[in-house]
Amino acid sequence: MTDNELPVIAHWIDGAATTGAGDRTAPVYNPATGAAQAHVALADQADVDAALASAERGFAEWSGYSIARRQSVLFAFRELLNARKGELAEIITAEHGKVRSDAMAEILRGQEVVELATGFPHLLKGAYSENASTGVDVYSLKQPLGVVGIISPFNFPAMVPMWFFPIALAAGNAVVVKPSEKDPSASLWVARLWKEAGVPDGVFTVLQGDKVAVDGLLASPVVQSISFVGSTPIAQYIYETAARNGKRVQALGGAKNHMLVLPDADLDLVADSAVNAGFGAAGERCMAISVVLAVEPVADALVAKIQERIATLRIGNGAGADEPDMGPLISAAHRDKVSSYVDTAEADGARVVVDGRGFTVDGHEDGFFFGPTLLDAVPTTSRAYTEEIFGPVLSVVRVASYEDGLALINSGEFGNGTAIFTNDGGAARRFQNEVQVGMIGINVPIPVPVAYHSFGGWKKSLFGDAKAYGAHGFDFFTREKAVTSRWLDPATHGGINLGFPQNA
């Protein structure tokens, strides 16, 4: 099939698929084969304008729905998603490359937020104070923002949008999702499901594209808020640009997550956890463990145990009949970038224990594969230690004490996730209080909170005050009105008083 014969992945505007007004497209690859399998439409400004005009119309209708009617649509979406999530997993595997079980796992974690959102009537209740002053009642109302934007990364094309849109829609907003152009089909599939569930046209919009689409959302006065997940430099750009344009912003950035291993830890549990957290999804997740801080004298034994486990991992096409443990990276360019970090670590004096550079899979030689890589004694001055690699590279750093390990974690520019492995409850409790990180695992390697808590880090891992989902999500997607009410009794009218209102 030639490039001209490849299908075009469209936008979803006003309740229907459309390739839009622009003629720009980008290739969408199958990462396991390295072959282009489609093109995605890239929005121009006319497409941005059309999407936002449709979303405004959709908001006017959707926000007028009763709470009971909105809730019934959310329940319908939940049931449709639950019945057909296998279709979505296949789409994710084909465009992202992660194995089917991992694709299904991300959908299930996103579905947690859908299920949380179905209970939104309780979470959108205001407060009421009767007779706050004589004959005066004060109460609050929670109302939707309007049209809200979601800018999603490539690594979780289903789960990350689901961190935001179920709550945004439950609150009565209209949503415009801008997916990654690397794996754009998942959001389009979700849009069709929302239409089937009963949302009005324009309430859920998918705007495919690149920087033109992103900047269009950031600049438009129609868009009231932006939710973003991605790298720290882009998160900072999103935050600064959107805030300058008067929008609410939750921008989740990058990470360099550490696992602190104390000498009393169960090293078999630690080794299993390090492999799971370091190489799952080929390391392309912001909650991956990329650094193991081994408090001596456990490092030699731990490195050997991790190396043994890496040797058992199966790498291949995630869509194959015999599902492997790990699939390819998202693109050839990203594979080469990950490889360059291993080059840097080696040049800086790290020992390459397991080398994933140049890894190939029989029958998929053009795929974007990179083998699981284990580095030991990585210098903390190396870029391979300080920067987010976002690939299947696990670094071991040897430290002399708990205090030294804690100091390394707290001195980093990121504060997304961390974990401690120990059998000492006092040490764990001390760690959770002293570490400067937003999400902490105690003998849990990937501490992603459940949906009724909130997801987000500290420092350069989060820009803006609101984390994703949970109570933060409902606060973010609503704004409050406070109403002070008095119904006058003509018989007791108090007359003219030019002073400031006060409780006598």
What features would you describe in this structure?
The protein is built from 15 helices and 23 strands. Helix 2 (67-96) packs antiparallel against helix 6 (185-197). It folds into two domains: 3-253 and 461-482, 3-Layer(aba) Sandwich (Aldehyde Dehydrogenase, Chain A, domain 1), CATH 3.40.605.10; 257-442, Aldehyde Dehydrogenase, Chain A, domain 2 (3-Layer(aba) Sandwich), CATH 3.40.309.10. The mean pLDDT is 95. It has helices spanning 45-62, 67-96, 100-118, 120-123, 159-170, 185-197, 211-219, 232-244, 267-279, 299-310, 332-347, 383-386, 402-411, 425-434, 470-476; strands at residues 8-9, 11-13, 16-18, 25-30, 35-41, 128-133, 136-144, 147-151, 174-178, 204-206, 223-229, 248-252, 257-261, 289-295, 351-354, 373-376, 393-399, 414-415, 417-421, 439-442, 458-459, 462-463, 478-486.
Number of domains: 2
Per the CATH scheme, the topology name of the largest domain is Aldehyde Dehydrogenase, Chain A, domain 1
* Count of DSSP strands: 23
Mean pLDDT: 95
Number of helices: 15
CA gyration radius, whole angstroms = 25 Å
Write the layout of secondary structure elements.
Elements: E1 8-9, E2 11-13, E3 16-18, E4 25-30, E5 35-41, H1 45-62, H2 67-96, H3 100-118, H4 120-123, E6 128-133, E7 136-144, E8 147-151, H5 159-170, E9 174-178, H6 185-197, E10 204-206, H7 211-219, E11 223-229, H8 232-244, E12 248-252, E13 257-261, H9 267-279, E14 289-295, H10 299-310, H11 332-347, E15 351-354, E16 373-376, H12 383-386, E17 393-399, H13 402-411, E18 414-415, E19 417-421, H14 425-434, E20 439-442, E21 458-459, E22 462-463, H15 470-476, E23 478-486
Parallel strand pairs: 1-5, 8-9, 8-11, 9-10, 11-12, 13-14, 13-19, 14-17, 16-17, 19-20
Antiparallel strand pairs: 2-3, 4-5, 6-7, 7-23, 12-22, 15-16, 18-21
